[in-house]
Records
---
Amino acid sequence: MKTIKQFLLAVVLASSALSAQATVYDLGDLSSGNTFFGNNVSGSFTDTFTFSLLDNSDTSIGATTLNLNFRRFSFLNINNLSLSLFDSGDTQLSTGLDFSQSLVAGNYYLNVSGVATGYIGGLYAGGINVTPVPEAKTYTMMLLGLGLIGFIARRRRAD
Protein backbone atom coordinates (compact mmCIF):
# COMPACT_ATOMS: atom_id res chain seq x y z
CA MET A 1 0.00 0.00 0.00
CA LYS A 2 2.86 2.37 0.86
CA THR A 3 4.50 1.63 -2.51
CA ILE A 4 1.28 2.46 -4.38
CA LYS A 5 0.96 5.79 -2.54
CA GLN A 6 4.57 6.66 -3.36
CA PHE A 7 4.02 5.70 -6.99
CA LEU A 8 0.85 7.83 -7.25
CA LEU A 9 2.64 10.77 -5.61
CA ALA A 10 5.49 10.44 -8.13
CA VAL A 11 3.00 10.38 -11.04
CA VAL A 12 1.21 13.48 -9.75
CA LEU A 13 4.50 15.37 -9.29
CA ALA A 14 5.77 14.34 -12.72
CA SER A 15 2.53 15.35 -14.46
CA SER A 16 2.52 18.72 -12.70
CA ALA A 17 6.07 19.35 -13.88
CA LEU A 18 4.99 18.66 -17.47
CA SER A 19 1.75 20.64 -17.30
CA ALA A 20 1.08 23.90 -19.10
CA GLN A 21 2.77 27.04 -17.88
CA ALA A 22 1.40 30.56 -18.19
CA THR A 23 3.40 33.57 -17.02
CA VAL A 24 2.76 37.32 -17.46
CA TYR A 25 5.66 39.79 -17.76
CA ASP A 26 5.33 43.60 -17.89
CA LEU A 27 7.75 45.32 -20.30
CA GLY A 28 6.49 48.77 -19.22
CA ASP A 29 6.16 51.90 -21.37
CA LEU A 30 7.94 51.73 -24.74
CA SER A 31 8.73 54.99 -26.51
CA SER A 32 11.59 54.25 -28.92
CA GLY A 33 14.44 51.81 -29.40
CA ASN A 34 14.74 48.08 -28.75
CA THR A 35 13.24 46.04 -25.94
CA PHE A 36 14.18 42.38 -25.52
CA PHE A 37 12.24 39.50 -23.99
CA GLY A 38 12.76 35.77 -23.53
CA ASN A 39 12.39 32.85 -21.19
CA ASN A 40 13.66 29.38 -20.33
CA VAL A 41 10.61 27.08 -20.39
CA SER A 42 9.60 23.46 -19.96
CA GLY A 43 6.62 21.54 -21.24
CA SER A 44 3.71 23.33 -22.88
CA PHE A 45 3.80 27.07 -22.22
CA THR A 46 2.14 30.39 -23.01
CA ASP A 47 3.98 33.49 -21.84
CA THR A 48 2.36 36.93 -22.04
CA PHE A 49 4.36 40.15 -22.36
CA THR A 50 2.38 43.35 -21.73
CA PHE A 51 3.54 46.78 -22.84
CA SER A 52 2.27 50.29 -23.51
CA LEU A 53 3.14 52.59 -26.39
CA LEU A 54 3.31 56.25 -25.45
CA ASP A 55 3.04 57.51 -29.06
CA ASN A 56 1.84 56.28 -32.43
CA SER A 57 4.67 54.00 -33.56
CA ASP A 58 5.95 51.67 -36.23
CA THR A 59 6.91 48.44 -34.49
CA SER A 60 8.91 45.41 -35.58
CA ILE A 61 8.50 42.30 -33.44
CA GLY A 62 10.25 38.95 -33.72
CA ALA A 63 11.12 35.82 -31.77
CA THR A 64 13.30 32.75 -32.24
CA THR A 65 14.35 29.62 -30.36
CA LEU A 66 17.76 28.41 -29.32
CA ASN A 67 18.03 24.70 -30.10
CA LEU A 68 20.92 22.73 -28.62
CA ASN A 69 21.30 19.21 -29.97
CA PHE A 70 24.12 16.68 -29.74
CA ARG A 71 23.78 13.84 -32.18
CA ARG A 72 20.28 12.52 -31.55
CA PHE A 73 19.96 13.99 -28.08
CA SER A 74 18.12 17.30 -27.69
CA PHE A 75 19.12 19.45 -24.70
CA LEU A 76 17.16 22.60 -25.64
CA ASN A 77 14.29 22.54 -28.12
CA ILE A 78 10.90 24.20 -28.65
CA ASN A 79 8.33 22.88 -31.11
CA ASN A 80 5.52 24.99 -32.59
CA LEU A 81 6.78 28.35 -31.31
CA SER A 82 4.23 31.05 -32.08
CA LEU A 83 4.07 34.78 -31.43
CA SER A 84 0.84 36.80 -31.51
CA LEU A 85 0.17 40.51 -30.92
CA PHE A 86 -3.10 41.65 -29.31
CA ASP A 87 -4.51 45.05 -28.37
CA SER A 88 -6.12 45.78 -24.99
CA GLY A 89 -9.51 44.70 -26.40
CA ASP A 90 -8.13 41.18 -27.05
CA THR A 91 -8.19 41.69 -30.84
CA GLN A 92 -5.41 39.76 -32.55
CA LEU A 93 -3.41 42.20 -34.71
CA SER A 94 -0.57 40.01 -36.04
CA THR A 95 0.83 36.52 -35.78
CA GLY A 96 4.03 34.83 -36.90
CA LEU A 97 7.62 34.82 -35.71
CA ASP A 98 8.55 38.12 -37.39
CA PHE A 99 6.21 40.97 -38.29
CA SER A 100 5.91 44.75 -38.51
CA GLN A 101 2.87 46.73 -37.45
CA SER A 102 1.91 50.42 -37.20
CA LEU A 103 0.28 50.91 -33.81
CA VAL A 104 -1.47 53.82 -32.11
CA ALA A 105 -0.60 54.81 -28.55
CA GLY A 106 -2.16 52.37 -26.09
CA ASN A 107 -1.81 49.03 -24.30
CA TYR A 108 -0.84 45.79 -26.04
CA TYR A 109 0.33 42.29 -25.24
CA LEU A 110 2.29 39.51 -26.93
CA ASN A 111 1.53 35.82 -26.44
CA VAL A 112 4.48 33.47 -26.95
CA SER A 113 3.55 29.79 -26.91
CA GLY A 114 4.96 26.42 -27.81
CA VAL A 115 6.08 23.09 -26.42
CA ALA A 116 9.56 22.69 -24.94
CA THR A 117 10.75 19.17 -25.75
CA GLY A 118 14.45 19.35 -24.86
CA TYR A 119 15.97 17.41 -21.98
CA ILE A 120 16.39 20.66 -20.00
CA GLY A 121 13.43 22.41 -21.66
CA GLY A 122 13.62 25.17 -24.23
CA LEU A 123 14.84 28.72 -24.61
CA TYR A 124 13.38 31.51 -26.72
CA ALA A 125 14.27 35.16 -27.19
CA GLY A 126 12.69 38.06 -29.03
CA GLY A 127 12.66 41.78 -29.45
CA ILE A 128 10.41 44.75 -30.07
CA ASN A 129 11.75 47.71 -32.04
CA VAL A 130 9.67 50.88 -31.62
CA THR A 131 10.00 53.92 -33.92
CA PRO A 132 7.68 56.82 -33.07
CA VAL A 133 5.71 58.27 -36.01
CA PRO A 134 5.56 62.08 -36.00
CA GLU A 135 2.06 63.49 -35.68
CA ALA A 136 0.52 65.70 -38.38
CA LYS A 137 1.02 68.84 -36.30
CA THR A 138 4.77 68.12 -36.25
CA TYR A 139 4.83 68.12 -40.06
CA THR A 140 2.74 71.30 -40.12
CA MET A 141 5.20 73.09 -37.83
CA MET A 142 8.13 71.89 -39.95
CA LEU A 143 6.53 73.12 -43.19
CA LEU A 144 5.68 76.49 -41.60
CA GLY A 145 9.28 76.83 -40.43
CA LEU A 146 10.64 76.01 -43.90
CA GLY A 147 8.20 78.48 -45.45
CA LEU A 148 9.33 81.20 -43.04
CA ILE A 149 12.98 80.53 -43.84
CA GLY A 150 12.19 80.69 -47.58
CA PHE A 151 10.29 83.98 -47.12
CA ILE A 152 13.20 85.52 -45.20
CA ALA A 153 15.72 84.35 -47.81
CA ARG A 154 13.64 85.75 -50.67
CA ARG A 155 13.27 89.09 -48.88
CA ARG A 156 17.01 89.33 -48.31
CA ARG A 157 17.68 88.56 -51.97
CA ALA A 158 15.26 91.29 -53.04
CA ASP A 159 17.10 93.91 -50.88
---
Amino acid sequence: MIGNGNKATVSKRKNPVNDAADMAAAFKGLGFLVDLLRDATLDDMENAVIRLGNRLGQSPGSYGFFFYIAYATGAGSVAQDGQDRNGLFTSQLLKHLATPGLEIKDVFNRTGADVMGASNNQQVPAIYNQLFKSAWLAGQAAAWARPPHGPGHRCGHRQGPFRQGRQSGLVQ
Protein backbone atom coordinates (compact mmCIF):
# COMPACT_ATOMS: atom_id res chain seq x y z
CA MET A 1 0.00 0.00 0.00
CA ILE A 2 1.57 3.26 -1.06
CA GLY A 3 0.45 6.69 0.03
CA ASN A 4 2.44 9.59 -1.34
CA GLY A 5 1.18 12.97 -0.17
CA ASN A 6 4.46 14.86 -0.26
CA LYS A 7 5.23 15.43 -3.91
CA ALA A 8 7.62 18.08 -5.19
CA THR A 9 5.21 19.27 -7.90
CA VAL A 10 2.13 19.86 -5.70
CA SER A 11 1.42 21.02 -2.15
CA LYS A 12 1.56 18.42 0.61
CA ARG A 13 -1.70 16.50 1.03
CA LYS A 14 -2.76 14.50 4.10
CA ASN A 15 -5.24 12.22 2.37
CA PRO A 16 -2.91 9.91 0.40
CA VAL A 17 -0.99 8.86 3.50
CA ASN A 18 -4.19 8.51 5.57
CA ASP A 19 -5.92 6.66 2.73
CA ALA A 20 -3.04 4.20 2.39
CA ALA A 21 -2.87 3.59 6.15
CA ASP A 22 -6.62 2.99 6.42
CA MET A 23 -6.74 0.77 3.33
CA ALA A 24 -3.76 -1.22 4.66
CA ALA A 25 -5.61 -1.73 7.96
CA ALA A 26 -8.76 -2.82 6.11
CA PHE A 27 -6.86 -5.36 4.00
CA LYS A 28 -4.99 -6.67 7.03
CA GLY A 29 -8.35 -7.10 8.71
CA LEU A 30 -9.40 -9.25 5.75
CA GLY A 31 -6.34 -11.47 6.23
CA PHE A 32 -4.01 -10.00 3.61
CA LEU A 33 -0.31 -9.46 4.11
CA VAL A 34 0.23 -5.77 3.35
CA ASP A 35 3.32 -3.62 2.89
CA LEU A 36 2.62 0.02 3.76
CA LEU A 37 4.82 2.74 2.33
CA ARG A 38 4.34 6.43 3.16
CA ASP A 39 5.84 9.15 0.97
CA ALA A 40 7.94 6.52 -0.76
CA THR A 41 10.69 7.12 -3.27
CA LEU A 42 10.63 5.53 -6.72
CA ASP A 43 13.19 2.97 -5.52
CA ASP A 44 11.01 2.14 -2.50
CA MET A 45 7.98 1.60 -4.74
CA GLU A 46 9.88 -0.52 -7.27
CA ASN A 47 11.29 -2.68 -4.44
CA ALA A 48 7.76 -3.14 -3.01
CA VAL A 49 6.50 -4.39 -6.38
CA ILE A 50 9.45 -6.80 -6.60
CA ARG A 51 8.72 -8.08 -3.05
CA LEU A 52 5.08 -8.63 -4.03
CA GLY A 53 6.11 -10.62 -7.10
CA ASN A 54 8.52 -12.71 -5.04
CA ARG A 55 5.90 -13.46 -2.38
CA LEU A 56 3.34 -14.49 -4.95
CA GLY A 57 5.90 -16.68 -6.73
CA GLN A 58 6.65 -18.51 -3.46
CA SER A 59 3.00 -19.05 -2.53
CA PRO A 60 1.11 -21.15 -5.08
CA GLY A 61 -2.62 -20.62 -4.83
CA SER A 62 -2.34 -17.11 -3.42
CA TYR A 63 -3.21 -13.95 -5.24
CA GLY A 64 -2.13 -10.36 -5.11
CA PHE A 65 -4.26 -7.31 -5.31
CA PHE A 66 -2.57 -4.59 -7.29
CA PHE A 67 -4.95 -1.66 -7.29
CA TYR A 68 -4.72 -0.01 -10.70
CA ILE A 69 -8.20 -1.00 -11.89
CA ALA A 70 -9.91 1.99 -10.26
CA TYR A 71 -9.14 5.68 -10.09
CA ALA A 72 -10.81 8.13 -7.70
CA THR A 73 -11.92 10.25 -10.65
CA GLY A 74 -11.79 10.31 -14.42
CA ALA A 75 -8.96 11.68 -16.53
CA GLY A 76 -8.61 15.47 -16.42
CA SER A 77 -10.56 15.77 -13.16
CA VAL A 78 -9.41 16.38 -9.60
CA ALA A 79 -10.60 14.02 -6.86
CA GLN A 80 -12.26 15.58 -3.82
CA ASP A 81 -10.26 15.36 -0.61
CA GLY A 82 -13.31 14.60 1.50
CA GLN A 83 -14.36 16.17 4.78
CA ASP A 84 -12.50 13.96 7.20
CA ARG A 85 -9.42 11.79 7.27
CA ASN A 86 -9.82 10.21 3.83
CA GLY A 87 -10.45 11.31 0.30
CA LEU A 88 -14.00 10.87 -0.98
CA PHE A 89 -13.24 7.76 -3.05
CA THR A 90 -11.33 5.99 -0.27
CA SER A 91 -13.98 6.81 2.34
CA GLN A 92 -16.61 5.18 0.13
CA LEU A 93 -14.40 2.21 -0.76
CA LEU A 94 -13.70 1.52 2.92
CA LYS A 95 -17.48 1.30 3.50
CA HIS A 96 -17.81 -1.58 1.02
CA LEU A 97 -14.46 -3.38 1.12
CA ALA A 98 -15.27 -5.79 3.95
CA THR A 99 -18.92 -6.38 3.04
CA PRO A 100 -19.50 -10.15 3.07
CA GLY A 101 -20.89 -11.51 -0.17
CA LEU A 102 -19.78 -8.65 -2.42
CA GLU A 103 -17.69 -9.69 -5.40
CA ILE A 104 -14.81 -7.24 -6.00
CA LYS A 105 -16.46 -5.75 -9.10
CA ASP A 106 -19.58 -5.05 -7.03
CA VAL A 107 -17.43 -3.39 -4.36
CA PHE A 108 -16.12 -0.97 -6.98
CA ASN A 109 -19.54 -0.44 -8.56
CA ARG A 110 -21.08 0.49 -5.20
CA THR A 111 -18.11 2.67 -4.37
CA GLY A 112 -18.40 4.53 -7.66
CA ALA A 113 -22.13 5.06 -7.24
CA ASP A 114 -21.63 6.37 -3.70
CA VAL A 115 -18.85 8.74 -4.80
CA MET A 116 -21.07 10.14 -7.53
CA GLY A 117 -23.96 10.53 -5.10
CA ALA A 118 -21.85 12.20 -2.41
CA SER A 119 -20.37 14.63 -4.93
CA ASN A 120 -23.62 15.41 -6.80
CA ASN A 121 -22.07 13.77 -9.86
CA GLN A 122 -19.07 16.13 -9.76
CA GLN A 123 -16.63 13.26 -9.19
CA VAL A 124 -16.99 10.21 -11.41
CA PRO A 125 -14.54 7.40 -10.60
CA ALA A 126 -12.88 5.58 -13.47
CA ILE A 127 -13.21 1.83 -12.97
CA TYR A 128 -11.28 -0.38 -15.39
CA ASN A 129 -11.81 -4.11 -15.28
CA GLN A 130 -9.31 -6.62 -16.54
CA LEU A 131 -10.21 -9.18 -13.91
CA PHE A 132 -12.22 -11.93 -15.59
CA LYS A 133 -12.52 -14.22 -12.60
CA SER A 134 -14.64 -13.61 -9.56
CA ALA A 135 -13.06 -12.72 -6.25
CA TRP A 136 -14.58 -12.05 -2.86
CA LEU A 137 -12.45 -10.28 -0.28
CA ALA A 138 -14.84 -10.82 2.63
CA GLY A 139 -16.35 -14.16 1.66
CA GLN A 140 -19.00 -15.26 -0.79
CA ALA A 141 -22.70 -14.73 -0.25
CA ALA A 142 -24.42 -17.74 1.29
CA ALA A 143 -26.32 -18.52 -1.92
CA TRP A 144 -23.06 -18.71 -3.86
CA ALA A 145 -21.24 -20.71 -1.20
CA ARG A 146 -23.73 -23.60 -1.04
CA PRO A 147 -23.36 -26.48 -3.47
CA PRO A 148 -26.33 -26.96 -5.79
CA HIS A 149 -27.23 -30.28 -4.11
CA GLY A 150 -29.04 -31.19 -0.90
CA PRO A 151 -27.48 -31.33 2.58
CA GLY A 152 -24.92 -34.04 3.12
CA HIS A 153 -24.18 -34.50 -0.61
CA ARG A 154 -20.44 -34.84 -1.28
CA CYS A 155 -19.63 -33.85 -4.83
CA GLY A 156 -16.46 -31.83 -4.35
CA HIS A 157 -17.98 -28.40 -4.96
CA ARG A 158 -16.00 -25.82 -3.13
CA GLN A 159 -17.77 -24.11 -0.27
CA GLY A 160 -16.90 -20.91 1.52
CA PRO A 161 -15.02 -17.79 0.57
CA PHE A 162 -12.15 -17.46 -1.88
CA ARG A 163 -9.67 -16.44 0.80
CA GLN A 164 -6.98 -19.05 1.36
CA GLY A 165 -3.26 -18.35 1.14
CA ARG A 166 -3.51 -14.72 0.13
CA GLN A 167 -0.80 -12.18 -0.08
CA SER A 168 -1.40 -8.61 -1.02
CA GLY A 169 0.29 -5.62 -2.45
CA LEU A 170 -2.06 -2.75 -3.01
CA VAL A 171 -0.92 0.34 -4.84
CA GLN A 172 -3.17 3.35 -4.86
---
Amino acid sequence: MNSQSPSKSIKSRETEWNQFFNQFHSWQEKYKALIELRKKLPPYPEDKRLDDLKVKGCQSQVWLWATQMEPSKEIQFWADSDALITKGLVAFLVLFYSGLPAEEIAQHDVQYFKNLGLAEHLSPSRANGFYHMINQIKRYAFAFYYHDQQQNQNRR
Protein backbone atom coordinates (compact mmCIF):
# COMPACT_ATOMS: atom_id res chain seq x y z
CA MET A 1 0.00 0.00 0.00
CA ASN A 2 1.58 3.24 -1.13
CA SER A 3 -0.91 6.08 -1.08
CA GLN A 4 1.84 8.68 -1.09
CA SER A 5 1.62 9.23 -4.83
CA PRO A 6 0.90 12.95 -5.26
CA SER A 7 -1.44 12.24 -8.16
CA LYS A 8 -3.87 10.32 -5.97
CA SER A 9 -6.80 12.25 -4.58
CA ILE A 10 -8.05 11.71 -1.09
CA LYS A 11 -11.10 9.87 -2.47
CA SER A 12 -8.93 7.43 -4.43
CA ARG A 13 -6.85 6.89 -1.29
CA GLU A 14 -10.01 6.11 0.67
CA THR A 15 -10.95 3.52 -1.96
CA GLU A 16 -7.47 1.96 -1.88
CA TRP A 17 -7.43 1.72 1.89
CA ASN A 18 -10.96 0.28 1.96
CA GLN A 19 -9.76 -2.42 -0.42
CA PHE A 20 -6.67 -2.99 1.72
CA PHE A 21 -8.67 -3.50 4.92
CA ASN A 22 -11.46 -5.46 3.22
CA GLN A 23 -9.01 -8.16 2.13
CA PHE A 24 -8.79 -9.30 5.75
CA HIS A 25 -11.58 -11.38 7.20
CA SER A 26 -11.13 -10.74 10.90
CA TRP A 27 -10.17 -7.80 13.07
CA GLN A 28 -7.19 -9.77 14.29
CA GLU A 29 -5.90 -10.00 10.69
CA LYS A 30 -6.52 -6.27 10.21
CA TYR A 31 -4.49 -5.45 13.31
CA LYS A 32 -1.66 -7.68 12.20
CA ALA A 33 -1.69 -5.78 8.89
CA LEU A 34 -1.70 -2.46 10.76
CA ILE A 35 1.29 -3.53 12.81
CA GLU A 36 3.09 -4.48 9.59
CA LEU A 37 2.41 -1.00 8.16
CA ARG A 38 4.92 0.39 10.66
CA LYS A 39 7.66 -1.00 8.42
CA LYS A 40 6.56 1.36 5.63
CA LEU A 41 7.16 4.49 7.69
CA PRO A 42 10.02 6.64 6.49
CA PRO A 43 12.75 6.82 9.15
CA TYR A 44 11.90 9.40 11.78
CA PRO A 45 14.60 12.08 12.11
CA GLU A 46 16.31 11.76 15.49
CA ASP A 47 16.64 15.54 15.80
CA LYS A 48 12.82 15.74 15.67
CA ARG A 49 12.28 13.37 18.60
CA LEU A 50 11.27 16.29 20.80
CA ASP A 51 8.61 16.64 23.48
CA ASP A 52 7.06 19.49 21.47
CA LEU A 53 6.46 17.08 18.58
CA LYS A 54 4.76 14.42 20.68
CA VAL A 55 1.06 13.93 20.08
CA LYS A 56 -0.75 14.96 23.23
CA GLY A 57 -3.46 12.61 24.47
CA CYS A 58 -1.84 9.34 23.39
CA GLN A 59 -1.23 6.58 25.90
CA SER A 60 1.99 5.65 24.05
CA GLN A 61 4.69 8.03 22.94
CA VAL A 62 3.94 9.26 19.41
CA TRP A 63 6.05 11.79 17.57
CA LEU A 64 4.59 13.50 14.53
CA TRP A 65 6.32 16.05 12.35
CA ALA A 66 5.44 17.59 8.99
CA THR A 67 7.01 19.67 6.26
CA GLN A 68 5.54 21.27 3.19
CA MET A 69 7.29 20.45 -0.04
CA GLU A 70 8.11 23.24 -2.47
CA PRO A 71 6.87 24.11 -5.03
CA SER A 72 4.11 21.46 -4.93
CA LYS A 73 2.81 22.53 -1.51
CA GLU A 74 2.18 18.88 -0.64
CA ILE A 75 2.70 17.91 2.99
CA GLN A 76 5.04 15.12 3.99
CA PHE A 77 4.55 13.55 7.42
CA TRP A 78 7.01 11.62 9.57
CA ALA A 79 6.01 9.70 12.68
CA ASP A 80 7.21 7.19 15.21
CA SER A 81 5.89 5.47 18.32
CA ASP A 82 7.18 3.22 21.04
CA ALA A 83 4.18 0.82 20.77
CA LEU A 84 3.60 -1.57 17.87
CA ILE A 85 -0.14 -1.07 17.30
CA THR A 86 0.17 2.68 17.79
CA LYS A 87 3.06 2.82 15.35
CA GLY A 88 0.89 0.90 12.88
CA LEU A 89 -1.99 3.33 13.36
CA VAL A 90 0.21 6.39 12.87
CA ALA A 91 1.86 4.69 9.85
CA PHE A 92 -1.59 4.27 8.31
CA LEU A 93 -2.27 8.00 8.81
CA VAL A 94 1.15 9.03 7.47
CA LEU A 95 0.71 6.85 4.38
CA PHE A 96 -2.84 8.08 3.92
CA TYR A 97 -2.12 11.83 4.18
CA SER A 98 1.47 12.31 2.98
CA GLY A 99 1.72 13.87 -0.45
CA LEU A 100 -1.57 15.74 -0.26
CA PRO A 101 -2.00 19.52 -0.26
CA ALA A 102 -2.83 21.20 3.04
CA GLU A 103 -6.29 22.31 1.95
CA GLU A 104 -7.34 18.79 1.02
CA ILE A 105 -6.13 17.38 4.36
CA ALA A 106 -7.76 20.20 6.33
CA GLN A 107 -11.11 19.61 4.61
CA HIS A 108 -11.05 15.82 4.85
CA ASP A 109 -13.99 14.45 6.82
CA VAL A 110 -12.74 12.25 9.67
CA GLN A 111 -15.99 10.31 9.39
CA TYR A 112 -14.04 8.18 6.90
CA PHE A 113 -11.93 6.80 9.76
CA LYS A 114 -15.00 6.21 11.91
CA ASN A 115 -16.61 4.30 9.04
CA LEU A 116 -13.56 2.03 8.81
CA GLY A 117 -14.42 0.82 12.29
CA LEU A 118 -10.85 0.67 13.57
CA ALA A 119 -11.56 2.66 16.71
CA GLU A 120 -14.43 0.33 17.66
CA HIS A 121 -11.94 -2.49 18.08
CA LEU A 122 -9.32 -0.51 19.98
CA SER A 123 -9.20 0.11 23.69
CA PRO A 124 -10.82 3.45 24.56
CA SER A 125 -7.45 5.04 25.30
CA ARG A 126 -5.96 3.84 21.96
CA ALA A 127 -9.03 5.03 20.05
CA ASN A 128 -8.72 8.39 21.77
CA GLY A 129 -5.04 8.52 20.84
CA PHE A 130 -5.85 7.64 17.21
CA TYR A 131 -8.17 10.65 16.97
CA HIS A 132 -5.55 12.86 18.64
CA MET A 133 -3.12 11.78 15.87
CA ILE A 134 -5.69 12.75 13.22
CA ASN A 135 -6.28 16.08 14.93
CA GLN A 136 -2.54 16.79 15.02
CA ILE A 137 -2.27 16.04 11.30
CA LYS A 138 -5.17 18.39 10.62
CA ARG A 139 -3.56 21.10 12.77
CA TYR A 140 -0.43 20.87 10.63
CA ALA A 141 -2.58 21.09 7.50
CA PHE A 142 -4.48 24.14 8.78
CA ALA A 143 -1.22 25.85 9.73
CA PHE A 144 0.35 25.25 6.32
CA TYR A 145 -2.87 26.28 4.55
CA TYR A 146 -3.13 29.49 6.58
CA HIS A 147 0.55 30.25 5.93
CA ASP A 148 0.02 29.76 2.18
CA GLN A 149 -3.02 32.03 2.20
CA GLN A 150 -1.06 34.74 4.02
CA GLN A 151 1.78 34.50 1.50
CA ASN A 152 -0.66 34.73 -1.40
CA GLN A 153 -2.25 37.85 0.09
CA ASN A 154 1.14 39.47 0.64
CA ARG A 155 2.01 38.95 -3.04
CA ARG A 156 -1.03 40.93 -4.19
